[in-house]
Amino acid sequence: MSEEKAKISRRDFFKGAAMGVLGGAALGMGLFSYSPWRKDYLPKVGRKLTDIGTCKSVKVTNISETSWFENSVLMGDIKGAGGLLVNQYSYNWPPFGDGTGLGKGTYESGVGRIRRFLPNNLEEAWAVAEKLAVHPENAGGFACLIELEELDGRTRKFLLDSGWSYKWMDECFKREGIDRMLMNREIEAIIISHEHFDHFWGIPVTYKYDPAITTYIPEGFYPEGLQYLKDAGHKGELIKVKPGLNPIISGLATFVFAVPIICRVYGEQSIYVNVKDHGLVSITGCCHQGIIQFAETAFKEVKYEKDQLFGIYGGLHISPFEDWDPKYDDLVLSLGKYGFQKIGCNHCTGLLCAKKFVEGGYPVVKGTARFRTKETNYLGNGDKIGFGIEV
């Protein structure tokens, strides 16, 4: 658009808003951002349309969405330890507690007290952590099981994340039969979304049942995280995924977003699944890259059925601490433009945000509020969601 045209457009906008006419009022209210007119001012997006193949369906089982049990406790610890930019391994949270108190820990000091127990004697390891760590009772964790049905009917299983608390996650694994699946080598890989405590620190629970499982991590793990994989007992292949698209099997690919994250973590790995005759399903652990970037990346990078962004599942990271800001309403409105046919959200989406999705008429799959999940407006512990298949 020429500079002269831009000046005219801005002049017309402010003139209309000042006059109070309907068009000007709409622009002044911000509705322009969600209108078809907006497209005239944006450059055309080039699409790579990378073919990742197709599958017949995908089912997600929410093993645990309860990353922590009380927001106030978690945020009090973070504030007391120095804030959101402090290295997470220094908080003195379990399992790396060393008894020195909040904000005074180190990875080596903490893991040195439990290393000999990993991964087979997790009860003893957690008992040590409960005595030495800060607020061990608040630790929960996020993990889900992804079951992809191939076009020939074969089922492929993957874990996304392994939670935080050894005690809680082991209970959740046993409740959903994940322990048996791992022991039987039915789950072919675990995909770690990012290095955060509530998604990664429970990794010994996975390795307890299958220490040789292939493990995908996003490139950008810090030395402590890489060492923890070894200390946790991993004996299998470790794949460090570079930023960008990473096809794994037909119909399933991960995408690593090179973004800095709170608590000195870098990079998030999310999942795209292309379901035949339906469209693309986006699966995420926390979506620190943001729901708009997640959806726009799919549009720009991936070729998918019917050119339809069919579904989304995971923590959408809008108001995880229930600290609602008016700008979050823009994100709620923006999500609607992508036309998702099925939405499954959980913990770090935020309880209030999930409620706003429901009130906004979005196709949210509600949960059952079991196993310490707080509300039914989002998918809780033990709940399932299917894309291309009814569950």
UniProtKB/TrEMBL annotation:
One of its GO terms (molecular function) is iron-sulfur cluster binding. InterPro entries: Metallo-B-lactamas, Metallo-beta-lactamase_dom, RibonucZ/Hydroxyglut_hydro, TAT_signal. Keywords: Iron, Iron-sulfur, Membrane, Metal-binding, Transmembrane, Transmembrane helix. Pfam families: Lactamase_B. Residues 153-225 form the Metallo-beta-lactamase domain. PROSITE patterns: TAT. SUPFAM superfamilies: Metallo-hydrolase/oxidoreductase (SSF56281). It comes from the Bacteria. The chain crosses the membrane at residues 12-34. This is Metallo-beta-lactamase family protein. It comes from Syntrophobacter fumaroxidans (strain DSM 10017 / MPOB).
